[in-house]
Amino acid sequence: MTNNKTDDVHHAATQGYTKGADTYAKGRPDYPSELAGWLTGDLGLGPGKIAVDLGAGTGKFTPRLIETGAQVVAVEPVAQMRAQLAAALPQADVREGTAQSLPFSDASVDAVLCAQSFHWFATREALAEIRRVLKPGGHLGLVWNVRDARVDWVARLDAIVSVREGDVPRYHTGKWRNAFPFEGFTELEERHMPHGHTGSIEDVIVKRVHSTSFILALPPDQWAEVEGEVRALIASEPALASRDVVTMPYVTHAVRATRIG
Question: What positions does the domain Methyltransferase type occupy (predicted)?
C-alpha cells in the first residue's frame, strides 16, 4: 500500500484489521436473505451491471453481490484483508484502493456498496469520488449489521465495547450522516431488516467483540480485560449461560442514494 493510501485509512482500521483479519472473518455475522431483493430491486443489480464492494474487508459481503449476477469488484486498502478475501473468493476481482482514490474511470460503474464500512470514510471528498465513478442513475448503497440493543444483554455487551471506542468512527454515533445531503445525490432512503447470527458463544459473542477494530488494536493485557468482562456477562445472563449455541439479534440497515445527472 502506498503512503498516500495509508494516510486515507483511520489508524484503528489499519492497526486492528492488519493484526486481526482472521478474527474479523470468523466473528462477523452474515446478511439477511431479504437483502437480496434490495440489491436486485432498489439497486437494480443483475447480469450486465458492475458493482463495487468498497471497503470489502475479508469479503463477508462480496458473495451477496456475486449472487445478483453482476460483475463485482472488491476494493480494500488493508493488504491482510485483501489476502483473506482473495483466498476465500478466488474468482473475485480484488483491487487495492480507498474511497478517496477509486481505481475506476469516470461514470464506469452501476453501484458502489459499502457494507460495514462507510462510517470510516464518511466525508464529502469520498462522496465526490464515489459520484465520479458512478454512472448517471447509479446507486450508492450503505449497509450495516447493527446489534439489536433493545435486548438487555445486547445493550450490556455494547456498553463493554463502546467505553473503549475513543475517536474511532462508528455507525451508532450517526456522524456518518453529516456528509449528507450531497449535491449530485438524491436524499437517503432507508430500510431495516431484522435477523440474527446463530452459532457458538465463541463465534457469535467473543470473536464478534474481538473483531471490532479498536478492540483488535488493543495490547494483549487490555484484550484480556475486555474478554473477562464479556465472559462475566455471559456467565451472568440466563439466556447465554451454559448454552452451546446462541443467537445474537441484529437489524440490518440498508441505505440508498442515487447519482443525479
Answer: 52-140
Neighbours of 2 (CB within 10 A): 9
Check if the beta carbon of residue 256 is closer than 8 Å to that of residue 140. yes
Residue 55, CA distances (Å) to 41, 110, 233 in order: 23, 17, 32
Placement of cell 464506469 in the chain: 108
Strand-pair category, 245-258 with 189-200: antiparallel
Interval 146-166: pLDDT, tens: 999 999 999 999 999 999 999
Indicate yes or no: pTM above 0.85.
Answer: yes
The domain segmentation of the chain, as residue ranges, is 3-147+168-196+250-258
Chain centroid to Cα 22, Å, comes to 15
What are the tens digits of pLDDT across the range 211-250?
A: 998 999 999 999 999 999 999 999 999 999 989 999 999 9
C-alpha cell at 47: 447480469
